[in-house]
Each structure stands twice: as structure tokens, then as C-alpha cells.
Design a protein that fits this description.
The structure holds two protein chains of two kinds. By secondary structure, chain A is α+β, with helices and mostly antiparallel strands. Chain A contains two helices and eleven strands; from the N terminus they run αβββαββββββββ. The longest helix of chain A is centred in the N-terminal third of the chain and has 21 residues, at 4-24.
Chain lengths: 165, 518
Amino acid sequence: MLKPTAIVGQLILYGAFAAFIGYFSTSPKYRQIPDDIALIKLSISHLGDRECRKRTPEELAKLPPNMRAPMECPRERSDIRLEVDFDGQPAFRTVMHPTGLYKDGVSTVYKRFELKAGKHRVAVRMNDNLIKPGFNFSKEAEITLVPGQVMVIDFNPDRGGLFFK
Amino acid sequence: MSFHAVLRNGVKSVFLRFEEALDTPFGGDDNPLRHLGALGLYLLWIVVGSGLYLYAVLDTGIDAVYRSIGELSSEQWYLGGILRSLHRYASDGFMLVMLLHLVREWCYGRYHGFRRYSWMTGVPLLWLAYLAGIGGYWIVWDQLAQLSATATTELLDWLPIFSEPSARNFMAPDSINDRFFTMLVFLHLGVPLLLILGLWAHVHRISHVDYLPSRRAMLATLATLLVLSLLKPALSNPPANLARVPGAIGLDWFILFIHPLTDLSSPALIWTLLFGLTALLFALPVLPRPRPQPVAVVDAANCTGCDRCLADCPYAAISMAPHPRRPGLQLAVVDADLCAACGICAGACPSSTPFRRQETLTTGIDMPQQPVNALREQLEQALAQCSGLRTIVVFSCTRGADASALAAADTAVIPLLCTGMLPPAFVEYALRGGADGVFVSTCRHGGCDFRLGDRWTSERLLGQREPHLRKTVPASRLQLYPAAARDSSTLADALAEFRARLETVSGDRLPPYQRKAP
């Protein structure tokens, strides 16, 4: 039979256990970004371009009939150069490399930027074939970010290349 | 002394103080710190039981999952709501208990030798537990789920394991679909199943496993969690919206602490910490450690194949095999890798009785570092040297309270590897050899370094377990006293009290017995 002091002691200790679990299961509250900040997520997954060559009729004739593809393309994909500016200032510069042992996979980038809520000028430029100079894709726009907003910079060739969402 | 040893001893000292302090209100059987493994398993069963109900009523789908869980708390608070809260709080309790269990076993140095297997199989369970816990929060698909899913995938993407960033799955509201939740539910079922399988592996090399804590501890724990569930029910946050970052949010710090930690530091640092800590935990058993003690040795000529050592061994180190020379009989076989060198088997062996007339007492299973024959010689010598009105023989555990200070002209102190190695017949032998009383100082209940030494000693001496102390031995002349390492002063008081009690006892002396002719 438990002594009354032991019962009281157990009640206190089980209560402390419950209080500890109850408190730290939801407290203290956590805020990932400050109140007046918005988030821009740059996330691009794209297959770099490659230089293909048209086969000559002689070359095609030498191939077995079932392998006479008119274009000869290397397996390897080009690196992709990407630049991001916020309000005219360079914010991010990178060269994305293709994945895969044979460098034939997609090139990817994922990055978060925290910006003060308000108006910003966002410019993104991308070159997916580094043999050619300059940038073959670009997007520039003035955006208004509200606190806590998540804006995504993505790329989809079917949607005209770079886009903001 | 190495830094690791200093740190371990420091933490052990703190842990011991708490553990022993909790003995006062709880007693050894109900003390949660002495049964962390069993308590963890019990909390896991609460998680599993409540989770089965939640799984049955859950609708998988982006909106349906949030609605169906929310309705549990709002429209079925008396069942679904309570079970949901129990699921959360028992999970948090499980994490807490699991970490305390890890710290306790580490600071007590229980990770090498025969315990290496349990330690090694326990480390992956940490990963599985957190994996299951984090995944569980995603299912609700509220803002907390959104925060965790985004933060976890961003952390995972630092590792070169995905060809595309997995965080792309949580870029915008239209990035995820209903199938995601179906997969999530299966993952949240599969990982805990793996955890349970891992737990089976974790304990399957020890015997007499405490799968559950005492009934009183179970009821009290369940009542505590129920009260907490009623006072502070687990509720969903606002629904997830991937177009916005969640604001201030109530985070479960037991499970999701890794997200703020990543935000404060970097994914590189977090992975270095996680992999480094895991590697360190795996490496602990091979770090410099005390030299292993000699293991139990079986003497085929004296082993009767009774299998009492098999029944009592706390670490399943003994198996029975056909006796090589006695057809139809069995022989105990010791697995040296599993043997803890506690001597509990020697205490269980019926051949360990000191009343045998052999000049050299050879028992069926014995400890090379403290053979039963040496114990008998030590006892006989001590009895011969003892003088005084009330002579007492003290058998003490070397891992419990230090009894050496009790030695006096009328008090013989015989330290044992573990009191579980004391064959009960030695008590009668001491009394018939001239002692007025026998005082056995075990570890505190639930505090035995070899898990079961104090329990087997009590049960054998109280006649509840074989080999038992004969009923003809007067109970008044035997005192069992549980004492931890810091209980030396109370041990002295208990001995003085026993001596005083012996002065009031008369007329129940056993007939003298002398193995050798005087």
C-alpha cells in the first residue's frame, strides 16, 4: 500500500511530466521568417541543350535501316548559366551542371531568398547552351510582395521559358 | 581519465541522483527512470492503438485529410479527439523516454561487450522514430505540416540523393495531389512497423524482457496522458497554403526541433551533426573499454542439466545441449559473447550448495574470478575469525553500496559479483556455521547492473524461486536490504537495526553443521 506522501509525490511528478509534454508539444511558438518578409523560391529543373548535327545521306546509308535517325545528338547536356537580380543588384549567379554519370540528366537549382515585403524588380536570365554566348531565356518584371507571400521562379519551355508564380 | 569517461561519469552521477530520488515516491517497481525501455514500449503501444483508430477514420486527399482530422477534434472530441491527443502526447513521451533511455545506458557504460548487440540495434531505431514522427505531422496537412514538409525536403535536398530537388513537390498549391497522402499514410504505417521489428531485434538477445512497466505505472501514465488530452486537446493549425509562409506556429519541439535548428545553422551542419552523432553512437562499443571479465564455465561432471541457469540468465547466454557422456541428460552451454559474468547462473545451480562434502566444491556452472569453492572457503574462514555476542555475515553486491566499512570483529563482509550469484544454501550454511544472522545487501529494486540480480536474490531467499532457501531457516535471522552505491550510511543503520533485532531473537538456532571434522 502506498503511503500518502508517496501518492502526493507521484501526483506531483506525473503532473510535471504532463506539463512538460503539454508545453513543449506546442510551445514556444516558432516563426520561420519575420513578419514583414516574403519569400522567393527559385526552383528550376531543366535539361540543358545539346548540339545536334544533321547526318549526311551517305552517313545514313551506312547505318542499319532501323537506326537511320536523321540527327546525331551527343548524350551529354550543356551546363546552364543562371543569373538573378533583385532591384538591379546581382542576387545569385550559378552554373548548373547536368546530373547523371554521363551528364545526360536534368540540371537543377533550388534556392530561397528572403525579401522585404513591397515592390521589387526581379530579373532572371538563363542560358541552357553555353556554346552560345548570352542568355536565350530571360524574364524581368516588377512585382509586389505581401508579407509571408511565397513567389516561385520556375522554368517550363511549354510556358514560354522562365515564369513567376 | 579520458574526456569521454569524465563526461560519462558526470552525467551518470546526475542521473543516479534523480533515479534514486524517484525511488522514494515510486519504489523500484514503479520508478519510471528504472524502467525507461518498458515505459517507451508502453507509450509506443498507446501510439499504435490510437493510430489504428485515426487511420480508420482518415480520408486521404488534400482537403479531405485536413477536414477528417479536424472533425475528430470538433465533432467527436470524446473519442476521436482524445485518441488524436493521446497519439500526439504518447509520441512526444516516447521520444522523451527513448532519449532518456539512450542517455541512461550510455552514462552507465552499457554499450560494449555483451550489450553491444542491443546498443547497435538501438541506434537505427532513433532514425526510425523521428522519421515516423515527422511523417505523422505531415498527414494533417495544416500549416505545421507545410512548414515541416518544406523544411524536411529542403534539408534532404542538400544530400546528393535526388536528381531533382524534392522540395519542388511543395512549391505551389497545385504541386501536390491526393496520391501524396495515400503514400504518406502508407509510410506512416510502414516506418512504425519497421520500428517495432527493430525493437524486437533490440531486445531479442536478452531474456525476461520487461515488455511493459508495472500495472500501476501503466495506469498512472495513461491517466496522465488522458488528463492532458482533455485539458489541452491536440488541434490542427490553419490549413496548409503553399503560396504563403506559415506565421508564428506551435511547434512540437520533441519531434520537429530539427527545423528551427536547420534555420539557425545550415543543412550542412545538421547533416554533419546527425551523421556524426550516429557514427559516434555506432563507434562507442569499440572505443577503449574495461577488460571483459571471465565468463561462466560449465563443469560437465557436475552439471545435472536441470536448466535453472538457463531460466535465470538475464542475457540468454545459456543454452542446453545433449550431455556428451550421460545419454538422456542435458548440459548447459555458455555463449561467451553474451555472458555478462554476473554469476547469477552459479547462484542458480543446485550443485552450488556448500553442504556438499567435497574438499573442493565444484559446481555445475561457476565463475572463474569468484568460484563457489572460494566463496565457501571465504565464508568458513570468516566464521572462524568472527567473535562477539552477535556475529553477522554480510553478503554484498560490489556494484551496490560499499559494505567493506561494515567489517568488524563480529561482522564478516563477503563481496559478491552480484548477489544473484549467492546460492541460497549459503545463508543456511552461515547460520549453521556459527553466524547469528545473515545480511544480504542487494542493489535497489530495478537498479541491478545485471537486470535481475536483486529480483532473483529476493525471490530465492523468500522461497518463491528455485533454488530456494529452506523453510527451516528462521526468517528472523535473515535480512535483505536493497542499497545503491550512495547508500553506505543507510546500510550501516540497517545493519545496526538488524543486530538489535537479533538480540531479541532466541530459541530458533539451527543445529550446527561442520563440513570438516573439528
